[in-house]
Design brief:
Arc Repressor Mutant, subunit A; 4-stranded antiparallel β-sheet; 7 strands
């Protein structure tokens, strides 16, 4: 894809800027500027090295402004300069040869806001309580147990660990899936942060049974002792305690 084709593609992206911003808008200070972000995407997807003048023309900005954005992207590791010309282009005559830019291999990670997941868990809890109000807690615990057993196998937790070692292993596994879980002096699991957030407060019968189920599935896979009881928190910020 050459730079001219990219110009058409970039204009089509701008027509849906809200979706584009949702996907890569909240990255770093470097890519927070919409024009700089567009420059980076265009160069990353171009099959040819790109010059300052091409970027200035594509984005209808002054060459000095284009050079500023390119230098910032180079400084932060997203681009690198090269003297390599596009294939088939002849070398210039007298004067300094043009500087070209290509994208580096630096990864750009995109994460959607965690609040979306909290909203999803809230809605799913409501659905479960409406579909099976008398069986919601039991269903949540069963789902939790299945997931806990799957997680134990996925993580590779060994069987027949001593009880205290097993509790520590369970706490680490819970941390790996978003809980902030520690082991108290009397071997209880204390969760100071729950990824279900306010949903655990509004639907404790469902969410806390789900948490219990996960722990039970993990412990059952390790020790064969799957029965746990929880003391749920009453408000956000309180600890949730699970004990055998």
């Amino acid at each position: 894809m050459n730079i001219a084709t990219l110009g058409i593609r970039w204009r089509s992206i701008l027509l849906n800027s809200e979706l584009f911003d949702q996907q890569i808008g909240d990255l770093t200070a470097t890519l927070g500027d919409a024009t700089r972000r567009g420059i980076y995407v265009s160069i990353r997807e171009s099959t040819e090295p790109v010059t300052v003048s091409q970027i200035a023309s594509l984005f209808e900005i002054h060459p000095n402004v284009a050079r500023h954005h390119l230098d910032r992207l180079v400084t932060d590791g997203y681009l690198q300069p090269t003297r390599q010309r596009p294939e088939g282009q002849k070398a210039p005559g007298a004067g300094r040869p043009a500087k070209y830019y290509v994208a580096t291999q630096k990864e750009v990670a995109v994460e959607f806001p965690g609040r979306r997941y909290e909203l999803l868990s809230e809605l799913l809890a409501r659905v479960l309580e409406r579909v099976a109000p008398d069986e919601a807690a039991q269903a949540a615990e069963e789902v939790g147990r299945e997931y806990g057993a799957h997680l134990a196998a996925e993580v590779g937790l060994p069987e027949d660990l001593g009880y205290q070692t097993a509790v520590q292993a369970v706490a680490k596994a819970m941390i790996g899936v978003g809980f902030q879980t520690d082991v108290s002096d009397d071997d209880k699991l204390v969760t100071r942060f729950c990824p279900f957030g306010s949903t655990a407060i509004s639907h404790p019968k469902v969410v806390c049974k789900l948490d219990e189920g996960i722990v039970s599935g993990l412990m059952g896979a390790i020790t064969g002792t799957p029965e746990w009881a929880s003391t749920p928190h009453e408000k956000i910020g309180d600890d949730c305690i699970i004990e055998v």
